[in-house]
Write a structure and sequence with these properties.
binds zinc ion, three-stranded antiparallel β-sheet, 3 helices, alpha+beta, Single alpha-helices involved in coiled-coils or other helix-helix interfaces
């Protein structure tokens, strides 16, 4: 059973990562979907990542509220301020505040 269960777990993880990629590509096409649909994709993406303990892509982490898993639309249900080299993001659905270092080369994340 040991060997078989490990194999299944690896397969499931691969499937989860595949789902993540699919959902991410859907999220990146905002014009094709309604905000409701996109919120659903975002929520699903967060859930899949948590269930399978895989990292949420950084671009998703910045647009989904950690506290209430809402997809954030700046100027709609979220505000963003730049201060002291940080992006300060406020979710207006649950008032959670998050800060991100703000740099032009912010693609890289320190391991
Ligand atoms: Zn929130």
């Amino acid at each position: 059973m040991g060997r078989r269960s490990r194999l299944n777990r690896d397969k499931r993880k691969g499937h989860a990562i595949w789902s993540q990629t699919q959902l991410l590509s859907l999220l990146k096409n905002p014009s094709q979907f309604t905000p409701e649909q996109r919120s659903r994709f975002a929520l699903h993406l967060v859930k899949v990542s948590r269930r399978h303990r895989i990292r949420l892509p950084s671009e998703v982490r910045e647009i989904v509220c950690r506290a209430c898993n809402t997809l954030l639309h700046y100027g709609d249900n979220a505000t963003i301020r730049i201060r002291n080299g940080y992006k300060i993001q406020t979710c207006l659905s649950c008032t959670a505040v998050r800060r991100f270092p703000y740099r032009n080369d912010s693609q890289k994340v320190n391991a």
